[in-house]
Amino acid sequence: MIKITFSAILFFGLSITLAFSQQKTPALKERKIITYTTAKDTDLRLRATDTLRFKDFGQPQETEVCVFLDPTHTFQTLIGIGGALTDAAAETFAKLPKNKQQEFIKAYYDPKEGIGYTLGRTNMNSCDFSSGSYDYVAENDKELNSFNIAHDRTYKLPLIKQALAATGGKLTLYVSPWSPPAWMKSNKDMLHGGKLLPEYRQSWANYYVKYINALEKEGIPVWGLTVQNEPMAKQIWESCIFTAEEERDFIRDYVGPTLEKAGLSNKKLIAWDHNRDLVYQRASTYLNDAAAAKYIYGIGYHWYETWTGSDMQFENLKRVAETFPDKKLIFTEGCVESFKLDKINEWRLGERYGYSMLNDFNCGTIAWTDWNILLDDKGGPNHVGNFCFAPVHADTQAGKLYYTNSYYYIGHFSKFIPAGSKRIATSSNRDVLQTTAFVTPEGKISVVVLNTTDQKMPYRLWLDGQAAEVVSLPHSIMTLVF
Description:
single chain, 482 residues, alpha/beta, Immunoglobulin-like, TIM Barrel, 12 helices, globular, disordered N terminus
């Protein structure tokens, strides 16, 4: 057995930092910068567009537009980027011809020919993106003796297994419930909110264990779980309400101890799993209670519109990160809502993803999960008519796949920033250009530059007194790799 000491880890980290800080100018000049671009009103879609070189530059003047890099300062390590493997995605996938299924799996999970997804989320019991409501136990079976995931073997498990195989067994998968069975709830309905009844708290905690064990018996490793999808939303679909204090107590007294007793304390437990607006209030309620906090790996959040009309409150994420630096931020769900087939080529779809992802990473997010990876040409199936956009849609009658620009915007991150990458310091001196950057496990630097304006913006990529000349097209996203 090889023993790795803290001193050795510290030495390794310092060595990487020193390697960048002591890098000689000639070595930097020898590096080729490959640029990849997706841009509005062009045919550029995640295409290699240029090869650049660093040149001596020195101190930029105020009039000179730059994106600055500083690899000597690193931040969070990325767990992965991916999307949700829902019933809707799986049912749509199953209706495609084999060649299109293969194309789809490669498009998402192949790191060279696709965009290299390594993260996944799936629903425990039904959600809105299911063809109907279901659970895994007989009514009033408090002991869960009838627990059976046969429902999932038709569509969902085969898709998850294909995704798992395509990642070489390295799919980081977590599970989320939308609602307990109806008989466990105050309203006797999986839909329309309601609360978990006190007498079923232990049964519901046991349910998580049953589901995780069932998936792993199928050969599907489970990385983690969220406590409750959108615990403040009374929806027309599957939903269940928890106040912050109720969720805290459920974690502290039931979910955490039950996972521990079952030998599953290594599963990453994620709280909140709802919008950015209340993320600090919820996080502080859980994490200021030491007995609950010890079970919580991180705080999950979504991006949907709130009653205030805003869903981009990134400052709230920063408050959580700076107040609770030992806990992780995980983006667990988001998409563009109100699907219309004639809007499938609108540029706003991808820009919303790019803006969200870039800012989420700059706030410390360690994992980023899109909502459905695939939907049909109606934005479903969805048993309550809550149709949405996905990065890829399918016309299952014609056997065709449609890639929205969201797919390419996500790919500018997932393809070039693999799991294990560490975010590095970066900034822009013009608000036209937004940026984030990572150093990959192979030692490459991937810089993402987003331009959501109508302006064409020439700029320089600046590092250690060297700079390369670049041009950002209007409404574009670029990844620069060297």
